[in-house]
Each structure stands twice: as C-alpha cells, then as structure tokens.
C-alpha cells in the first residue's frame, strides 16, 4: 500500500475517479498544466487530456455556474478554487442554484458537482488565503460539507463525494497538506459521508474536532500524558460537518459528561455553537461541566506573524481540558 501525504492522496483519488468515470471533468485556476496551486492535480491533464482537465479564468461565480450546467446534463464536474476565501463571488451560484436544484425541481434534477477548496490557516498567508468559513456552507440545506484530516480519509471521502448524487463542498486544510504521511489502500474505496470517527476511547471527556485540529488535539493529549495528567478521552473526528454525526457525539457525552469542541473557525455562529447546542438539548442532565470550546477569535484572521495567536494551539487545548476535567459545580 502506498504511503502518502494529503496532497498525494487527493491526486490518487482524482486519478482513480477520472479513470472509472468518463464523465468527470476537472477545472479551475491553474489546475491544468501547473497542476493547481498546491499541485493536487499534477499530471492529470497530461494523462487525460485538455478536454477533461483544464484551466479556467479567475472568476469563481463562472466556475460554479458552468459546473451547474454540466452537472444537470450528466457530467460530474470537479471544480477547484485556489482558496476557500476566494469562494465568496460564487455564493450566489452555490446557495441559489447548487444547493436548491433538487428541491426546486422536486427531485427531477440533481446537481452532483464537487467544489474543492484549500481552507484555514497554518501557512502564514494573507487573509483570503487563510480563512475557515465552513459554517457558511453548512448553513445551506442541500450542500454536503466534508473536511478530512488524514490521507486515508481524504481519499475515501473524496471518492464518496464522486459517488454522491448531491453537491459536495470538499474543504482541504492547507496546514496538513504535507504535514505527515499515512499508508492507504491502493484501490478505489469510499468512506460514508455523515459518519464521524472515534480515534480513541475514554470516559473522562469528549473532544469533538475535524480537519487540521485533529492532529493538534492528539498533540495536546500526548502532552498531558507526558505531564502525568490522569485523563482518558473520547476523541471524535467529525469528518463531515453537513450532515454531521449527532449520534456519535450524543452517545459519547452521555458516557463522559463533558465536551470540548475544537476548530479554527471563529467562535460565534459556528460548528462548535451547533454541536454544543445539540448537546445541551439532548444531554443536559448528563453534563458534569459546562460545554467548552477552543476556536478562532471573532476577528478577521491576522496577517502572517499574528496568525498563530488566532488559531487553536496545543497549549490552549491543554488548558481547556484541565479546566473541564477539574470543574466542580
């Protein structure tokens, strides 16, 4: 089995998808000859030709609008935007057409396109290159929103998006594009969209996270172990935030009585807000401490040198874990 990073897992998945499905086309800004700004589509134009993998203008609304036309006519367009913060001009297409087409046509039409976008900070870029606005997409019924955290998940979830008859927003944390490698199956496989994954089992605390913050939470737990801090944690990777796996979270919190949600997006009106509200509605009588969250601040992400102050860190997570575990009513 190949040992790959997240970028290589993306390339491998796209290659297998194009080989299996002749109706797939991939296009976006610099995705053809250059292979994309992060080289996720490297070699695909040479292998499959300019009609199936090609460059497009810097016009995000046009990218998505043309994908709508392709999708309702039997093609499977996979659009790449250079960064999540570049997607704002495409909101009109995404929210008024892509998300609504199945409902608007009472199921006669579907819009099975994929929009891939690098998301989040960690590379010290400028504001539109480092934003995490996944909650905006999740707020619109009709869109599936996927955020993988490992090469194995990246490949399996992207191929699941390929097989989906609904539109999928596929967000790729730039911080972990090349941060680590993992052995993955060589063959075509899918992972279920909408199911979380429990990375480790514990009885003291539930941590819910996704994307790049999964590895930060793992580092925080490793630090606590080195310190000798006695804690056993249910660590849950949501993988998908729309739909999100309520059952795995509710079951865990009923066992542990404590929850911490970690993500890099802003604090207010966020995924953390939704998860914690659900826990309060379904598990309130089980809670041993108020729900906690470690997130970005309610500000525009700072320029490069201030970026790490804005994002969750191992130390912030460690402090919050200790606070929740030591809390007494």
TrEMBL record:
CDD domains in UniProt:
TPP_PYR_E1-PDHc-beta_like
Which cofactors are required for activity?
thiamine diphosphate
Residues in Transketolase-like pyrimidine-binding domain copies: 4-179
What are the protein's GO molecular function terms?
oxidoreductase activity
Q: According to the lineage, what is the superkingdom?
A: Bacteria
One Pfam family name is: Transket_pyr
Keywords noted in UniProt: Oxidoreductase, Thiamine pyrophosphate
Q: Where is the signal peptide?
A: none
- UniProt xrefs under InterPro entries: THDP-binding, Transketo_C/PFOR_II, Transketolase-like_Pyr-bd, Transketolase_C
Q: What is this protein called?
A: 2-oxoisovalerate dehydrogenase
Lineage of origin: Bacteria, Bacillati, Mycoplasmatota, Mollicutes, Entomoplasmatales
